[in-house]
Specification:
This protein has 227 residues and is mostly beta strands. The longest helix has 12 residues.
Length: 227
């Protein structure tokens, strides 16, 4: 059994204390709804193996190991699926505001069309903001101490912004984009490798583990972006 479940009373006390400062109606409930392999949750410096049904709170750091994946239901905002060897931080999960920090690896995001708030995936240099869409984000090779960032859209539209460069680009369904060294936006295009991604987040509908060869995908990006 996950240690987080054993510490339920302690977590409940913390939540009750926090409610004195922030109305509980602002928070959205998030939890692990599916996992394969090695998945951990770090909360306030304590790391434990994740389990089905575990709560995922603001500030939690979720990691997947090799040949591992996890699906997190964020409540009203939507769902996340982490590829193997990935790490995210749930920075905000409110009724009208959800922000996920991608530290490394690959992340599938599904935003519910009924969600009326703002949903963002953030890295050190890039912010992707959406409403009612599905998109995939992953880090590539490192250039000048900063990794490239890839993003492609399955449905809807994603606004990709690089605040420090004052640049932005709208990426539409079926398109992908490469953010070179996390700062330079390329022109959105239709890439072959995006067709191979496993977008499924319903275990009852089939396998959810994504086996896409991202090294090969990166070669596809290089062929088109470094002519």
């Amino acid at each position: 059994m996950s240690p987080f479940r054993q510490s339920y009373r302690t977590r409940l006390s913390v939540l009750l204390f926090a409610s004195l400062c922030i109305p509980t109606s602002l928070f959205a409930r998030a939890q692990v709804v599916y996992l394969e392999g090695d998945v951990t949750i770090e909360r306030r410096g304590q790391v434990a193996d994740a389990d089905f049904g575990d709560a995922v709170m603001e500030g939690d750091r979720v990691r997947t190991g090799a040949r591992s994946t996890v699906i997190i239901d964020l409540g009203s905002a939507g769902e996340l699926k982490l590829r193997a060897d990935s790490e995210v931080v749930i920075e905000e999960n409110r009724v009208r505001e959800a922000t996920v920090g991608l530290e490394h690896g690959g992340l599938f995001s599904r935003v519910r069309s009924s969600y009326e708030g703002r949903f963002r995936v953030r890295t050190d240099t890039v912010v992707a903001g959406v409403r009612g869409t599905e998109f995939f984000t992953a880090f590539g090779r490192t250039i000048d101490d900063r990794p490239d960032l890839w993003l492609c859209v399955e449905t809807g539209e994603v606004l990709v912004e690089v605040p420090e460069a004052g640049a932005s680009q709208l990426v539409r369904a079926g398109e992908g984009i490469n953010i070179l060294a996390g700062t330079q936006l390329t022109t959105p295009r239709r890439y072959r490798w995006t067709l191979e991604l496993n977008w499924n987040m319903d275990p009852d509908a089939g396998p959810v583990f994504d086996t896409t060869d991202l090294d090969q995908a990166y070669g596809d990006l290089l062929d088109q972006d470094y002519d």
